[in-house]
Amino acid sequence: MRIDIGDVRLYFDVEGAGLVPDGATMAERPVLVALHGGPGADHSLFKPVLGRAAEFAQVVYLDQRGSGRSDVGDPASWTWERWADDVIDFCDAVGIEDPVLLGTSSGGWVALTAAHRHPERVRGLVLDSVMPGPAEERLAVFERLGGAEARDVARRYWDGEDVQDDWERVCLPLYSRRPDAADRLARIRWNPDVVEHFRHTLAARFDPWPHLDRVTCPTLIMNGEDDPVATVSAARRLAAALADADEHILPGTGHGTFREAPDHSIGLLRAFLARTAS
């Protein structure tokens, strides 16, 4: 499905009912708006695991502008602020009053930006593998997982060198240890222009730290112990900076806890939503 929010149409999909029978009444379930990473990937990153949350929530998958099946829009509008405002505009357009925003990787950057720009509109945050740690810490994890070659390729890639093939061959496989990782990556409808815009411009422009006092909603932070980009120290620093945050470090887990440790992650999500509903 697509919906017009002004200058672009955004693609979204839904799993689970928002209202369910409960005796003589209809009970309202929380609404999760799932924001994919990349940036420049699409909502397929969440499927099929996040569909399990449809047992206790309504799950809304959103392709951000420039990504997936949404309109590309003006490249000048590929910013954290515009993507965050798009989330609120989308919720207004479809009538979601108090969403819980769930963001994986850079989707968490969008969710966090929406929460500090529109604190009155966000019921809760679920941040999965979100905050990048210091470069040296990230390189050390790559080296621990993939040796000296992985460290060297990652350093050159982050320095802006044209090593895309080496990055995809050496480093990307270290994000995940699951046997379905290749199929999952193949399903993504990428926009490589957004990926390059992130690498050369947007990554350096993300700085939520001065605004975190405006994030007032409950927040669930999940991070893999073996994540080579969103590091454990950064997750702990983020949790300490927020007013109401639960932090969970998942052992033996790579980038994207819902994909890497689905049972554990869905259990944490269920408990978090129960807490935010009370």
TrEMBL record:
<dbReference type="GO" id="GO:0016787">
    <property type="term" value="F:hydrolase activity"/>
</dbReference>
<keyword id="KW-0378">Hydrolase</keyword>
<dbReference type="Pfam" id="PF00561">
    <property type="entry name" value="Abhydrolase_1"/>
</dbReference>
<dbReference type="InterPro" id="IPR050266">
    <property type="entry name" value="AB_hydrolase_sf"/>
</dbReference>
<dbReference type="InterPro" id="IPR000073">
    <property type="entry name" value="AB_hydrolase_1"/>
</dbReference>
<protein>
    <submittedName>
        <fullName>Alpha/beta hydrolase</fullName>
    </submittedName>
</protein>
<feature type="domain" description="AB hydrolase-1">
    <location>
        <begin position="30"/>
        <end position="260"/>
    </location>
</feature>
<dbReference type="InterPro" id="IPR029058">
    <property type="entry name" value="AB_hydrolase_fold"/>
</dbReference>
<comment type="similarity">
    <text>Belongs to the peptidase S33 family.</text>
</comment>
<dbReference type="InterPro" id="IPR002410">
    <property type="entry name" value="Peptidase_S33"/>
</dbReference>
